[in-house]
Design brief:
alpha+beta, 6 helices, 44% helix, three-stranded antiparallel beta sheet, 168 residues
Length: 168
């Protein structure tokens, strides 16, 4: 009896040929159809688009959300995926391009899936609920603030009670 080979883990869309601009256009279109306003692209020093921000009005208040692309981790996964197929990408510029296409294709797929959930849920989930981890406050997303809080040491307790002064 032979043991089945374990399939190599590969990042979704690692072979994507969809341009970054096309993925961004589809994301923008979907967000616009769901009442997003002020859709803004954020570029790095080289001109690559590294994040997309947008506003949504909730109960008369405008909230900004930011979707980062985070290419560094995607780049490593794309490189491993191609290597697992025996077709490593040796050119750094080509690998960077593929990582950007992959990251934005995955974000496009995620945004479109979230919008389909919102549309099909009959009010069970809302746009702001789905995008909450990406809500911006003082330059950081809600998730980044949550992650930062997790890195804090646990508050000191006195007789099983947390000191309010120490938590601040």
């Amino acid at each position: 009896m032979t043991t089945p080979k374990k399939a190599a883990l590969r990042i979704k869309n690692y072979t994507s040929e969809i341009s970054v601009e096309e993925s961004l256009g589809l994301i923008r279109s979907s967000l616009s159809q769901h009442q997003a306003r002020r859709i803004i692209y954020e570029n790095d020093e080289s001109g690559a688009i590294v994040a997309l921000s947008f506003e949504i009005a909730v109960a008369g208040h405008r909230f900004t959300f930011r979707l980062p692309a985070r290419f560094a981790g995607v780049r490593e996964q794309v490189a491993r995926a191609w290597e697992s197929r025996g077709r490593a990408i040796r050119d750094d510029a080509l690998l960077d391009e593929q990582a950007q296409r992959t990251a934005w294709a995955n974000l496009k797929d995620w945004v479109l899936a979230q919008m389909a959930l919102i549309d099909s849920s009959n009010g069970l989930v809302s746009t702001e609920e789905v995008f909450f981890p990406y809500l911006l406050d003082n330059g950081h997303t809600a998730f980044e603030a949550f992650k930062e809080q997790l890195a804090l040491p646990a508050p000191k307790t006195h007789n099983g009670r947390i000191s309010v002064e120490e938590v601040r």
